[in-house]
Amino acid sequence: MTMTTVIQRGVWAVLLWPYLLTCSLPLDCKEDHDSFSRCPSISQEKLLDRVIQHAELIYRVSEESCSLFEEMFVPFPLQLQRNQAGYACITKTLPIPSSKSEIQQISDKWLLHSVLMLVQSWIEPLVYLQATLDRYDGAPDMLLNKTKWVSLKLISLEQGVVVLIKKMLNEGMTTTAYSEQGLLQYDGQPEMLESIMRDYTLLSCFKKDAHKMEILLKLLKCRQTDAYNCA
């Protein structure tokens, strides 16, 4: 990819970024950022629509962030190295179905809990990612801002899914048993190459999981409206 193409993409992203921030409805059910406790007043259908919207935006911005990081810091040989070196995603051990046939067979309850597990598993790693990206020389503000935005939206998404679980399943607050200790145990300053590959893996894995969140939520929405034709 040429430098001209990278610059052109960057210009378009700068122009569209303010619109992306403003067009996203908050999940706290009012046009402000107060307590999420107001959300039970919204209908289940509208809440699910907003949760899906948040998941779509999170995936879109995670995809942009991963591409931007790749273009700025990861030469093509290192991209191949990540694929060949067996870098594992931190959510690999979560009991979440991955194949299409498995996903089709799980209940609505397990769909929601799977999304919640993914969301909660990424909250702390994204905080870590923000801190480590701040140490990069020449890291563009656009990348830093996108990462911070996704981190905040992920917390909002968690709140929305929790309220959705209460509405649809009549369950209280749910937390996962998953621990991010394997990721957050790093101390000190890693070598630059190691840091790049670690952060690239994080961004790539989060993009993959953000897409999975979106797919699971849209399947849930489909089941609410057309239970017999959801693929």
Please summarize the sheet with the most strands.
Answer: none
Coarse shape:
elongated
The overall average pLDDT, rounded, is 77
Radius of gyration: 18 Å
Q: Beta-strand level of the residues, as a percent range?
A: under 5%
- Give the helices and strands as they follow along the chain: HHHHHHHH
Compute the number of strand runs.
0
Low-pLDDT windows of residues: 1-26, 31-36, 175-188
N/C terminus separation:
35 Å
Number of helices: 8
Helix content: 55-70%
> What is the structural class?
mainly alpha
What does this structure look like?
The protein is mainly α. It contains 8 helices and no strands. It has helices at residues 3-23, 44-73, 76-84, 100-105, 108-133, 141-169, 181-184, 192-225. The chain starts with a helix and ends in a 6-residue tail after the last helix.
List keywords for this structure.
disordered N terminus, mainly alpha, 231 residues, single chain
Give the helix/strand layout.
Blueprint: H1 3-23, H2 44-73, H3 76-84, H4 100-105, H5 108-133, H6 141-169, H7 181-184, H8 192-225
Helix pairs in contact: 2-6, 2-8, 5-6, 5-8
